[in-house]
Amino acid sequence: MSGGSPLRGRTAVVTGAARGVGERVALALARRGARVALLGHEEAELARVAARCREAGGAAHPWRADVTDERRMTAVAGEVERRLGPASVVVANAGIAAGGPFDRTAPDTWRRIVEVNLVGSAVTARVFLPALSATHGYYLQISSLAALAPAPMMTAYAASKAGVEAFTHALGAEVAHRGVAVGVARLTWHDTGMIRAADDYRVMRELRHRMAWPASRVHRVDRVGERLARGIERRSAVVSLPPWLRLVEAARPLLPAVVTLRARRTLSHLDEHDLTPTDLLGPGGAADLTRPR
Known about the structure:
The chain is α/β, with parallel strands linked by helices. It is about 50% helix and about 15% strand. The chain is built from 11 helices and 7 strands. A 7-stranded parallel β-sheet has the order 3-2-1-4-5-6-7, sandwiched between helices. α1 crosses α8 (about 225-235), α3 (about 70-85) packs parallel to α4 (about 105-135) and α4 (about 105-135) packs parallel to α5 (about 155-175). The longest helix is centred in the middle third of the chain and has 29 residues, at about 105-135. The protein is globular, with a radius of gyration of 18 Å.
């Protein structure tokens, strides 16, 4: 697969690479002959993904890093360039989420979600932008359906994803004259640890199940990497997974009223116990909670 890919011999950086979407896109890039820098909290999991990338045909190396720590991320950017070469591709995938009513969610939890998803993406872009400018590279921001449609019980996640899309589009306009391309990948529900953990909570499960089909469907994660890698090869401005998400943009003005109506019906039938806020969801959320401070 790597023979005809423009990514062959290029350096690609993936944040949140220990599992899920990050792992899948890292493997897809490695199969195309890229040298992959894997960033995340969990050293053992990152080492496992690095080994899989090498088996797939690409060089890979893990770095432990918190995307909100600008000093550490700056150091990692330098180490990546020295070990693998200047980055031609950066995939800002690191993200966390929690569920629950806004007024019952701990302020520190709410703030941390915004810091990782929005501020962490900006830090990632800042520290790797010199390399992307030198290579005329491509920056891909992983976003979500939650950036386009209201996500009740996930206010921090929705706010951060909407914010990061605005940041990404503004950044793209700033750096286009340097030859740097910027894209957004919008994903709906995929079978990751985060989504499986969300389904353990009744309120999150009920809200998803009551979404209009096909928005309620959970998709297989094993296909995501290849589809994102194709978007990276094309330096796409928008990658929609699944493709019907492109239609959501046109319906965006109608979505708040539709979601509010469905959420009102759902939440009115739940008791107080069901409205207890969740912890940060999934293994990635647990890793963030136990990160070195």
